[in-house]
Each structure stands twice: as C-alpha cells, then as structure tokens.
Amino acid sequence: MSKRFTAGAVATATALALTVTGVMGPANAEPTTTREFTVVSESGVTAEAAIAAIAAAGGTVLSRTDEVGLFLVVSDRADFASRATANAALLGAAEKKAIGSKPKLDRVEQEHLLAQAQATARAKGPVAKRGKKMDPLDDKLWGLDMIRADKARKVEPGDRRVTVGVLDTGLDASNPDLGPNFSRSLSRNFARDIPEIDGECEVVGCLDPVGTDDGGHGTHVAGTIGAAANGFGLSGVAPNVTLVELKGGQDSGYFFLDPVVNALVHAGNVGLDVVNMSFYVDPWLYNCTANPADSAQSQAEQRAVIEAMKRALSFAHRKGVTLVGSLGNNHEDMAAPRIDTSSPDYGGDPYPRPIDNATCWDLPVEGPHVIGVSSVGPSGKKADYSNYGTEQISVAAPGGWFRDGFGTDTYRLDSNMILSTYPKHVLQEEGSVDENGNIVAGFEESVFKQCKANGDCGYYTYIQGTSMASPHVSGVAALIVSKYGTKTRGGLGMDPTKVERQLYRTAAEHACPEPRLQTYTNEGRDAEFDAYCTGNSAFNGFYGYGIIDAYAAVTTRM
Fold first, then answer.
1. Please, which pLDDT band fits residue 102 given cuts at 50, 70 and 90?
2. Based on the domain organization, do 50 and 180 belong to the same domain?
3. Cα separation of 296 and 47, whole Å?
4. Are residues 87 and 116 in the same domain?
5. How far apart are CA 309 and CA 295, in angstroms?
6. Domain boundary among 49, 65, 96
7. Comparing C-alpha atoms, which of 319, 226, 321 is closest to residue 273?
8. Residue 447 covered by a domain
9. Which residues contact 238 (CB under 8 A, 6 or more apart)?
10. For residue 126, what pLDDT is reported?
11. Are 510 and 380 in contact (CB under 8 A)?
12. Does residue 129 register a pLDDT over 60?
C-alpha cells in the first residue's frame, strides 16, 4: 500500500527490542533465519516463569502482555515453536511466516467492484430517496432508516464521554466527518506494518501514526458507528460519541493474534465502552484444539490462539467493554460449518480441514461475551453471503447486499450496500479517484466527495458485508451507554451485560422466511448458498433476537 521501507528501519527496531528485553536464547542455538512468534503461557504461570521458559526454548521476548500471558518473541532456532510447546510453562507459539506480497481480499465486500461494468450501467436507474436528512448524503443511508437511528438521535445522539474502539485497519481522522469525534490520546496502533504483505513502510519503524488508515476497512466501519452529524457528508448511528482507533489489522487486511489481543487489553485498561470487531484472527478461519487434518505444531498454535483470545475478550468484558463482532461472510451455518478450504491464509498453502463444531472456534465472534451480528439487505432479507445459525447469532443489522431487489429496478445496485467514510488515497489506489482527487468517470454512483469552503474534503464509498452490519450494532450499543450509563472517572460506563440485554429486548423481532429453506438461485448463487432458518420469531438463526432498533433501545425503560 504505497509503502516506503528500508532494511535499516527493521534492523534498528529489532536491535532496540533486544536491548530493552535483555532475554537471550542459549548459546548453542541452531542458527537459521530469525522468526517472530506470539507465545501464550499456560494458565497460572507467572510472567517471569514464562519468560524463562521462552529463553530456554531459544527465544527473545520483544514485548509482554501480562494481563493475558502473551509474549511477542523472536528466535533464530528452526525448532523454537516445538521446543516452546514442549515446555510445561507454555501453551503454544504462533509464528508469523512471510509468504510474499498477498493482500487479504474479501470478495464479498468488493463484489460491486468485480461487477463494476454492470453496476455502472444500472446505476442510472432510480434510487429510493428517503426524505430530507441531517447531512447531505444521509438520504443514501437506508441502514439508518431500517434501525430507526435517524429517529433515535432526536432522543439520544450519543454522549461525548462514551468511547467506541474501532479494532480494525486504522481510522482516517483527516475525514471531516471523523476528525471531530476522534480521540487521538486514547488511540493506539498495535499492528506494525509487515512489508511482505503490506508493502513498503511509510515511516521508520513501520508503525503508522494513529489517525491514518492504509487499508480503508476501519475508516468505513468508523463512519457507520459515529460520523459526526455536522451538516456535511453523512452521519453515523451515534454521531456524538468518541471514536478510538485500535489498529489491530494489517494494511493488507490480515489480523494477527498479538496486535488483536493487545488492542483488547488496551481497551479494557483505558475504559472504552464498546469495541467493534469486524474480522477474524488469521491465519485460521476456524481455530481447532486438535483437528486431525492439522500437524501437531499447527494444533498447538491454534490452541494458543483460542486461549489468548478467550483471556483477552474476558479481560475486556470484566473491565466494562461491550464487545461486538461480525458473524462472517462465508454463507454457512455456524453450528454446522463446511470443510474449511481457506486456512491457513498466511504462512503456508491452505488445505481441506473438516471442522468439528465442538472443538473449533471462529474468533473473535465465537469467543466469550461477543455479540454476533448477521447481515441483511435493504429488503430485510438475509444477505446471501452472511453466516447464520442459532448457536452464535445475537442480532441482525444492515450490512448491505448488492444483489438485493431481484425482479425490481434496484437489483444489483451499489446503493443496496452501505455507504460510509473512506480514505482518499485508498480510493486512488483502487482507481476510482484520480491523482487530483476527482472521482473517475464511471464511479460517480459508487464514490462520493464532499468538500468544505476551506478545501477540506471527505470521501465516501459503498461496501457490503457482516463487517458493515456489526458497526450498526456498536453504534446502538454506544447510544444505550449514552442514555443509561452512569458517571465514572472521566466518562460514562455501563455493565456490558446490561447493554447486551437492552440491545436484545428492544430489537425488532423478525420471523424466519417461508419457506424456511432460503435459496438464492434468482440472485445467481448455487446450492451452497442455500440456508435453512431454525427458531421462531423471538429468536432464530437468521435474525437472532431481531433487527436492532436504535429508537426502541433509547426509549424503552430498562
């Protein structure tokens, strides 16, 4: 992503880390290429004992997160991971393996770009207008209407003391809709750029400054949660709350264990109220305790991921953080997953892995205390790509569906998706905005530009996915804390269990479709996308407790 990287920058950073920690491996370690690992200690093991075990296995600790027993480690031993796993003080080690430049593309979120020719041809058709709104582009935000967020803000627009963490690829605070609500002091970048997958580094040390986003995903999520209602651009579900960047994702779209865990621990320690998580932890779509298709080392690695994520999510929850996660775009029943053919998606070639639901987890959404969100289109129908199932779903929310509206003049339009903030330079890299900042011909209906009199401009684009549904829920959760939270030292706070309960009890119940077996043949999907809805109107596999309702959430007495 337009990076500028020098070998000296990495050498300097590594040397500094070694000097600070001073924990060295054995003198007779077998030399090989230096590798980086995330190591998790066994429960009850002290940090000092874990560090000693890491050193005995031939590793050097770069950083430590004592709250969850997690350590970032480098080693020049080819057998470090197996040696660490064999030590009784350590649960396992997950290696970051370079594979060359390979951005993690989500074909669901980018479906409209893959079909840009058709979308552009149809985009001249009628687009439903939704009446005069607060900000110029709000008439394109059908999601705000569906969850009655436009009505809710008249009662509760959000409180500045309520903080929402965007655990994602970053946050472009230069956008005039995000800058006013952005907390630079609370924000942190936990994901150092990895040149092999992110491109050349832009800064010495490869740690981008907060308030930037070279991936775009986090900026889009942030706008849906809390873009300011300022008469400019568009507004979010909770337009007055404070947005906090928790950069745990790489520019290329990967989310690795160490930055994600550290972001969650930071969220708990600084007292954030809500954290949105629209991703899964790489490289395993499902982390299994002992999948027979995996090697012994891969099994140990996944057990470490499972334990570290459970600890981090539980820590944040105990500290008062409401956790919201997307169910995923793999169009499958999460209680009966298909064979995983995409893992590992980093560090090696993927291979078929039968998934045992009892011993495998999609993290973070299947972790403790996480509100799982499915995606619906403008019609209210479950989007073809959205995961579902009564086991993990909590609620449904607008996530967009490009193929919604079959048989009408709105079928396959960008406006069926979710419009939100996006970094200009990422749009330029994607080819929809030129070097002068102007929208390229053919993209006028999918990318928007708004400028202030002083020349400051904001950019906006459509994306779809459960990643776009989850921030709608995070925004409503922030409104609940704003309305019913109690004063804490320096802000507002609320027991996340109470936030969750209010979210569920005020969601608009939505029964399963009839027939319950939903097919997407008309939309061009094969039988793999067929989805059976179980449950009743109070709770079912497509909608959980229902489609979230922001207005009911802030007007229904607790």
1. low
2. no
3. 25
4. no
5. 21
6. 96
7. 321
8. no
9. 149, 157, 158, 162, 164, 225, 226, 475, 476, 478, 479, 482
10. 43
11. yes
12. no
Residue type, 24: M
Residue 140 and residue 415: Cα distance in Å, rounded?
7
Residues 17 and 143 both lie in one domain: no
Give me the half-sphere count of Cα atoms (radius 13 Å) on the Cβ side of residue 420. 33
On whether residue 101 sits in a domain, the answer given is: no
In this prediction, residue 371 has a pLDDT band, given cuts at 50, 70 and 90, of: very high
How far is Cα 460 from Cα 445, in angstroms, rounded to an integer?
A: 11
Read off the amino acid at residue 499. Answer: V
Q: Looking at residue 118, what is its pLDDT? A: 45
Predicted pLDDT of residue 133: 67
265 and 320 inside one domain: yes
Mean pLDDT of 508-518: 97
Contact 157, 209 (CB under 8 A): no
378 three-class SS: coil
245: which strand partners?
166
In the 3-class helix/strand/coil scheme, how is 289-301 assigned residue by residue?
CCCCCCCHHHHHH
* Nearest Cα to Cα of residue 107 among 342, 313, 294, 335: 342
pLDDT of the residue at 328: 97
In the predicted model, what is the mean pLDDT of residues 208-237? 97
Contact (CB, 8 A) for 339 and 131: no
Q: What is the dihedral of CA 373, 432, 170, 456, to 10 degrees?
A: -120
- 3 state SS of 438: coil
Residue 439 lies in a domain: no
141 and 271 both lie in a single domain: yes
Measure the CA–CA gap between 37 and 61, rounded to whole angstroms: 9
% of the chain exceeding 70 in pLDDT: 89
| Final residue in a domain of this structure, among 33, 65, 96 | 96
6-60, pLDDT tens digit by residue?
A: 222 222 222 222 222 333 333 344 444 789 999 999 999 999 999 999 999 999 9
Q: Is 133 contained in some domain? A: yes
First to last CA, the chain: 47
Same domain, 274 and 380: yes
Strand-pairing partners, residue 94, are 38
Distance CA(252)–CA(22), nearest Å, equals 32
Residue 71 belongs to domain spanning: 11-96
Residue 344, SS3 per DSSP: coil
Find the mean pLDDT for residues 313-320: 98
How many Cβ atoms are within 10 Å of 129's Cβ, its own excluded?
A: 9
The domain tally of the chain equals 2
- 92 and 147, same domain (yes or no): no
Query: On the CB side of 91, how many CA atoms lie within 13 Å of its CA?
Result: 23
Q: Is residue 5 scored above 50 in pLDDT?
A: no
Q: Judge if 384 and 480 occupy the same domain.
A: yes
Question: Which candidate, 123, 130, 129, 141, places its Cα nearest to that of 177?
Answer: 141
The CATH number of residue 514's host domain is: 3.40.50.200
